[in-house]
Design brief:
- The chain is of the alpha/beta class.
- The chain is 36% helix and 23% strand.
- It is built from 20 helices and 22 strands.
- Helix 7 runs parallel beside helix 8, helix 16 runs parallel beside helix 17 and helix 18 packs across helix 19.
- The longest helix is centred in the first third of the chain and has 23 residues.
C-alpha cells in the first residue's frame, strides 16, 4: 500500500462511526542533523494486532518514545486517541490516562523489588493513607497471576527470576493496566510491545500471543514491534513498515508473503540464495577447555580450532549461554582449565576479565544495555574503551585522535548515524551492536566469545555482523558463539554443540549444520538414550 493509499484509508477510517484507537498524522522528530522520523502517519484500529516493522534506525523506537512522552516531536504533527485530539508533546504521565501501556525492550521492572511490588507498584503509589494494606495487595497480585496462569511466587525478587518469567511479569502488568483503564472508561485501549520475545522459548511466545489475542478480542488494540517476521506473520492482522524514518508501506498480513515484507523493510528484493553449504573442515586446536564447571554446567570439555566458528545452543535453561562468561572470567567457574595454542595454561577458577583482555580474548555479552555498552557515554568512548590507556598523553586523553579513529571504524562497520559524539543510548539497538562489535574486532582478538550477537537487530545489521565475524575468522580468529537462533548458527558456524542439562549431548558439523538439524537436536536431545547416559557418566562431546 502506497503512502497516498494509506492517507486515503486513514481518511475513510476517520469518517466511520467507530474511530481508530490511535491516529497519527505527520509525526516527525529531528536529532541534530538526523531526521529520525519524517512525516509518519499511522492508524491502529480497535481489536487488531498491528505489527510495526523496520530495520534498526528506521524510526520504530523513536516513534514509541514519542508516544510514551519520552521525546517531544517536531511541530506540525497531530495525534488522536479514540477520536479525541491529544496535544503534543505528550506529558510522560498522559499515556496511561489515555489508555496506553508499554512493554519496552528493557521491560521496565525494578529488579530489587518483588513480583508483588512490581505488579502493584502504580496502585501502591497512588493509594491513599499512610499504610499499605498488604493483605489486599497480595490478593490482587495473586488474582492477576491466576488470571494469566503465571506460576511465579509473589515474594521473589525480579532479579531472582528467569528471563522468561521477567518478561511475562512485565507483559501481564501492562495488560492489567490497560484492562483496568478500559473497564473504567468503557473505551478500547492500546498495548505496545517493543521486542518482547527474544528471551522467550517457543512455549513462552505462544503464551504471549494468547494474551495478545485476549486483549484484542476484548476490543483493545495491540502493537507488536519485532524483527522476527515469522512471528509478525503469525500474530498480526496488519503491518506498517518504516524505512529511513518514513512509512514505506502498509499491508494486511493475510495478503502478505515473507518476501514482500522483507522487500518493504530493506527497500529491495532479496536474491533467492541457497542456504550455505558447510563442508566439514579440520582446524588446528587454538583453545582447549577441560573439566569446565560452573553455575548450570556440571562438567564440560570443548576445543575450538584456529579460525573456527563454533556454535553453542540448546533449549532455554540448558546452560550453553553460560560458557562464554565462565571462559572470560565474567562469571566464576567452579573448576576447569584452558590451554591455548601458545602453550599457556589458565585455571578458570581464577580467570578474570582483565586477564582475558590481556591475553587478547574478547567477550560480547548478550545484554547490550547493562553488560556491554554504556548508554550515557559517547560512541567513540564506547568503541575505544578497552584501549583507553593507549590514548593518554601527558595525563590527558587525545580525544581528537579517538574521534577520528571511531569515525573510521564507524564507516567500516556501517554505523548509522556515524557520529562519534552521539551517546550510545541514542543509537538504535542494531547500530549500538555494530559499535560494540567494532570495539573488539578492532583489537583482532585470538578468541572472540559471543552471546546472542544479533539479538534484536534487523536483517541488514545481522548480515553486516556475520560478514565482519567471518572475515576475522578467515584471518585466524577463533569464535565461540552462544545462540538460541538456529538459523543464525546455521549461517555462521562451522560446528555446533547442543546442550541439555548443562552438558553437551550432540555435535553437528559439515552438512549437518542446518536450521532444521539444529532445532531437532535441541528438542530431541533431552530424551535420547545417549543424553541420559552422558548425564549418568558425566561425559561430553565437543572435543573434536
Amino acid at each position: 500500500m502506497t503512502t497516498e493509499q494509506i492517507s486515503a484509508r486513514n481518511d475513510r477510517v476517520a469518517s466511520t462511526q467507530t474511530p481508530p484507537t490511535l491516529r497519527l498524522e505527520n509525526i516527525s522528530k529531528t536529532f541534530r542533523a538526523t531526521r529520525a522520523l519524517d512525516s509518519v502517519s499511522l492508524t491502529i484500529e480497535p481489536g487488531e494486532v498491528h505489527g510495526l516493522l523496520g530495520t534498526n534506525g528506521s524510526g520504530k523506537s523513536t516513534l514509541i518514545k514519542v508516544l510514551a512522552g519520552f521525546h517531544a516531536p517536531d511541530p506540525g504533527g497531530s495525534m488522536q486517541f479514540n477520536g479525541r485530539d491529544v496535544p503534543l508533546p505528550l506529558d510522560p504521565s498522559t499515556f496511561r490516562r489515555l489508555g496506553m501501556s508499554f512493554v519496552h525492550q528493557n521491560l521496565g521492572l525494578v529488579p530489587s523489588l518483588t513480583v508483588l511490588e512490581n505488579l502493584r507498584l502504580s496502585q501502591i503509589a497512588l493509594g491513599k493513607g499512610r499504610r499499605i494494606n498488604w493483605r489486599k495487595e497480595r490478593a490482587a497480585a495473586q488474582e492477576t497471576l491466576d488470571r494469566y496462569d503465571v506460576d511465579v511466587e509473589q515474594w521473589r525478587r525480579i532479579d531472582e527470576l528467569s528471563a522468561v518469567n521477567r518478561a511475562l511479569i512485565a507483559i501481564i502488568r501492562a495488560f492489567e493496566e490497560i484492562r483496568e483503564e478500559c473497564e473504567r472508561t468503557g473505551e478500547p485501549g492500546l498495548v505496545l510491545l517493543d521486542e518482547p520475545t527474544p528471551f522467550l522459548p517457543k512455549e513462552g511466545v505462544d503464551r504471549l500471543f494468547q494474551l495478545m489475542r485476549q486483549i484484542a478480542d476484548h476490543g483493545s488494540a495491540v502493537t507488536f514491534i519485532s524483527h522476527d517476521i515469522d512471528e509478525v506473520m503469525e500474530i498480526t492482522d496488519r503491518v506498517t513498515i518504516l524505512r529511513d524514518g518514513k512509512v514505506s508501506g502498509e499491508i494486511e498480513t493475510r495478503d502478505a508473503s515473507r518476501d514482500q515484507m522483507i522487500e518493504m523493510i530493506i527497500g529491495r528484493s532479496l536474491a533467492s540464495a541457497a542456504p550455505p553449504v558447510h563442508v566439514a573442515r579440520k582446524f588446528e586446536p587454538m583453545a582447549r577447555l577441560k573439566g569446565l564447571s560452573g553455575a548450570g554446567i556440571p562438567n564440560c570439555d570443548i576445543t575450538v580450532g584456529k579460525g573456527e566458528i563454533l556454535g553453542l545452543t540448546g533449549l532455554i535453561g540448558s546452560g550453553y549461554d553460560k560458557i562464554p562468561y565462565l571462559v572470560f572470567g565474567a562469571d566464576s567457574a567452579h573448576s576447569g582449565e584452558m590451554k591455548l595454542d601458545d602453550g599457556k595454561h589458565f585455571d578458570l577458577r581464577t580467570m578474570t576479565p582483565a586477564t582475558s583482555i590481556a591475553e587478547n580474548i574478547a567477550l560480547l555479552p548478550g545484554d547490550r544495555d547493562t553488560k556491554s555498552g554504556v548508554g550515557n557515554m559517547k560512541v567513540f568512548e564506547n568503541m575505544l574503551l578497552p584501549d583507553i590507556g593507549g590514548y593518554v598523553q601527558g595525563g590527558f586523553l587525545r580525544n581528537g585522535q579517538m574521534r577520528r579513529e571511531a569515525k573510521a571504524l564507524g564507516e567500516r562497520f556501517e554505523v548509522r548515524p556515524n557520529d562519534p559524539e552521539l551517546n550510545l543510548g541514542n543509537l538504535s539497538g542494531g547500530n549500538a551492536q555494530k559499535v560494540l562489535i567494532a570495539r573488539w574486532l578492532k583489537r583482532e582478538p585470538r578468541l572472540l566469545l559471543l552471546d546472542e550477537p544479533t539479538q534484536g537487530v534487523d536483517v541488514g545489521t545481522r548480515a553486516n555482523i556475520f560478514k565482519a565475524v567471518k572475515e576475522a575468522a578467515a584471518k585466524g580468529m577463533s569464535v565461540i558463539c552462544a545462540s538460541s537462533d538456529a538459523e543464525q548458527l546455521a549461517e555462521l558456524c562451522d560446528r555446533v554443540l547442543v546442550f541439555a542439562r548443562g552438558r553437551i549431548v550432540d555435535e553437528l558439523a559439515g552438512s549437518q549444520v542446518d536450521k532444521d538439524n539444529i532445532t531437532q537436536a535441541c528438542y530431541s536431545s533431552l530424551g535420547t538414550a545417549e543424553g541420559r547416559a552422558q548425564d549418568a557418566a558425566g561425559q561430553d562431546k565437543g572435543t573434536s
